[in-house]
Amino acid sequence: SSPDIVLNVNGIEVIYNHVILVLKGVSLQVPEGRIVALLGGNGAGKTTTLRAISNLLKGERGEVTKGSIELRGERIENLSPADLVRRGVVQVMEGRHCFAHLTIEENLMTGAYTRSDRGEVAANLEKVYAYFPRLKTRRTSQAAYTSGGEQQMCAIGRALMANPSMVLLDEPSMGLAPQIVDEVFAIVKDLNEKERVTFLLAEQNTSMALRYADYGYILENGRVVMDGPAEGLRENEDVKEFYLGMG
Ligand code: ATP
């Protein structure tokens, strides 16, 4: 049987500053419990797609001008990012948004802001540490003095503190050594398999993303130009020629 569709993006158009058309009718679906990769080069529209889903376009002077976005059948275009967090959808932004002057643990705790049950939050923190033992070791370190990989882990861990069912993960490999990228993706896979967290993963690093994802969409210039199961995309000659080895 086919799994339920958690997220359904249907023909969205996004315009920045009233004039710059960046997404030209993007459609994609994310089934429950899967890892879906959103691939494509610099400027293809990956970040814009994630921002549209989590309603973070306004701050960038962008808006969805056509199409619809549904979470489990409910239209979400008008929900605030906080409403989405309450519905289990959390975005991890590109560039590892940790608070530099806070410790790793303080950063993680900021992710629990929508939750009031202290006992549950404490248990959640221990769970994050179980998945990211490096963060436990560094829990009292100021984020500014931790490595790029640790900051990326901290950003993901912070998202997990909201106890999400779905994480929108923007370019987790950015600026990280291949070995650390592998470590981060292995944890993502683990969270997906053991906690059933669904991921929509925007990545320029096509080969790495397709190693961990179930399904991929390739964006070019604001349009989906190809999509399919990860295994098929890995073997596809066009993908090999234009995307593998990139990132
Ligand atoms: P990257 O990997 O660089 O983040 P991307 O695939 O995520 O690339 P976007 O960041 O979504 O691409 O950018 C898509 C296009 O939208 C680019 O041409 C970019 O210059 C433009 N763009 C992004 N943000 C804005 C903004 N706030 N105002 C105007 N144009 C923008």
From TrEMBL:
Keywords tagged on the record: Amino-acid transport, ATP-binding, Cell membrane, Membrane, Nucleotide-binding, Transport
CDD domains per record: ABC_TM1139_LivF_branched (cd03224)
Span of domain ABC transporter: 7-246
Transmembrane stretches, start-end: none
Pfam family, one: ABC_tran
Molecular function, one GO term: ATP binding
Record InterPro entries: AAA+_ATPase (IPR003593), ABC_transporter-like_ATP-bd (IPR003439), BCAA_Transport_ATP-bd_LivF (IPR052156), P-loop_NTPase (IPR027417)
Highest taxon of the lineage: Bacteria
Family: Belongs to the ABC transporter superfamily.
Name of protein: ABC transporter ATP-binding protein
Organism, scientific name: Variovorax dokdonensis
